[in-house]
Design brief:
Layout lengths: L2 H7 L6 E2 L6 E2 L18 E3 L5 E3 H4 L3 E7 L7 H14 L6 E7 L7 H10 L7 E4 L3 H11 L20 E5 L5 E6 L3 H17 L1
Parallel strand pairs: 5-6, 6-7
Antiparallel strand pairs: 1-2, 3-4, 5-8, 8-9
Length: about 200
Amino acid sequence: MSISMACNNKQRVLPFYNSPDFTAEWIKPNDTNYSSIHTIDTFSLMNQLGHTITKDSLDGNIYVANFFFTSCTSICPKMVNNLQYLQDTFAENKDFKLVSFTVTPEEDSVEILKNYGEIHSVNPSKWYLLTGNKDEIYKLGRKSYFAEKELGLKKDSTEFLHTESMLLIDKKGRIRGIYNATDKVDIKRAIDDVRTLLSDE
């Protein structure tokens, strides 16, 4: 067997990310630290159809999470276009979802999110647009998803959350990748990593 074939047959293993500095850690199931890997905190928010979505709703699914707002004209349109590509790539896979949290929930009601989703060809069974309590969303974004990395830990909901980051979450709610959602190269990397998780779990 050639070296290239051997490399192709070798299963990639994604790291875990346990801190906002996003230091990659490869932790094996038999490691004493395996049971204390950082996981996304519990939450309860409403999607664009008015359904309650919780952390438990997503357990057992691999998903990509990001933060946006419907009136954004800078980075959000690029992010949405790239997330559409992710949605279409895994359209037939029931174990993959996308989750977009609005950072202006006072403006982005369920109805507005529904209309936004229809305009941008969002499949509501595959891609959740979430709204709800602002403090909950901001705390979740900064302390659970580490969406603004270390800088976010020093902020609260009075300081606007605006980031191009998107996070890959595994079936147990653990962070396995961070990407720039406006960057086509990073989107392709995310697709490869999703495929790795889907084949691994």
